[in-house]
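Data availability (excerpt). The following record was deposited with the supplementary files.
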Amino acid sequence: MLQSNSALKGRIDQLWNKFWSGGISNPLTAIEQITYLLFMKRLDDLDLKQKADAEFTGEPCISKFDGKFTIPGTEQQVDKQTLRWSHFKNMDPEVMHKMFTKQEGVFDFLRNVGNRSASFSKFMKGATFMIPTPRLLAQVVEMLSNVDMSDRDTKGDVYEYLLSKLSSAGQNGQFRTPRHIIRMMVDMVEPTVEDTICDPSCGSAGFLTVAGEYIREHYSNELYKEDVKHHFQDKMFMGMEFDPTMIRIGAMNMILHGIENPQLYDVDALSEANTSFTEKATLVLANPPFKGSLDRESVDGKILSVVDSKKTELLFLALILKGLKLGGRAAVIIPDGVLFGSSNAHLKIRKELIDHQKLQAIISMPSGVFKPYAGVSTAILLFTKGGDTDQVWFYDMQADGYTLDDKRNKIDISDLADIVTQFKNRNNSEVNDRQAKYFFVPKTEIEANDCDLSISKYKVEVYEEVVYEKPILIIEQLERLEDDIQNGLASLKKLIE
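Predicted structure:
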């Protein structure tokens, strides 16, 4: 794993500083540029592997780099072999940089040809090559050349470490969900090879990649079956993202984690353009944006029929209900305001979850989980589409394994493993202690409280009685201290006289 490879981690850190000093200070831009290079390397690696396999089996092989590349808008042609990673990686930096920036160069090939069957390539419209100097390009190419891209774990870890740099990009609106929180949510819902898994606000595709790793860990033998493998590669993973940069990054993240053809859509998930997302998924994992308000006229009418609001956190819950198949599950991060907000829209979405769906659990998270992005308090909703809620399981998470300040340093205290264990065993416990971290609340009690789902409404806090000494005793102690100070000063005066 990359965490144990300090040398590689150090090289990436050095590279990051080079981007910064080279004038690329936005982490998102730097990751996008590295993504383009990773894709070119991957195209070459796959092509060479296919060629070697074909030579071994005697079958014909059509290379992506055979023949000529016609420059768009011209009749000029260039030999595709010169555009291979293995060809240009050892070039002089000046020559290599020209290979990328000239019209008939590597980047034009990637943007206009590439691999049209791959998810990443179809999102290259509007992509721009922005690495400013030959030296910086050569340094990036050298670093990536030393990464074993045939190892899924290594290349996935490399990209995850790059994405971790987005922690300093909160001002750009690109907030990553902490990977340990994603893993906890995935462990709770336990994806299977039959699932169709969706994240309607997928960003860098963190939920989808972690779900994919979970499937690999728990269904390794099943994935050898042709039909299961086909479903895993082409149908299992679905995501929506309207930011063109993020969808390119998300697609590359999926590919580097071994998912060749995820169903990613460059669309505003809440808009009329996404009306087809109806009863498509059996599992939704999401951390929708908490951006405030949207123009009501731009929102899909089917969503507004569930909850008439401009608030994105409420609209995304309605979208998820629309997109789930009957019996489908969801684990969704929401701001605490959804749990107790008093507007008609807030009340309606909570009643929808309680009365017409099976609301299973609410995990209350401390406000520092999303620092340094924001200090907002959040919770995780877990529910199943259809059925009826009889009781809701609450857990009061107090630690996630990191400090809750802006530094988010790793610590030894964490509730995450306990949350997963207790959630899976929640129906086997005979004890229901409102003073504990976790407990059940019956639906009738929730309804009696205007469907308030905040844990503070139901948890019984235990206050430790603090006994103070009588004031006269405290004054006597202060007088004794004062006497000691005066005696000490008198002794010092005698010493210096």
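Summary of structural features: The mean pLDDT is 86.
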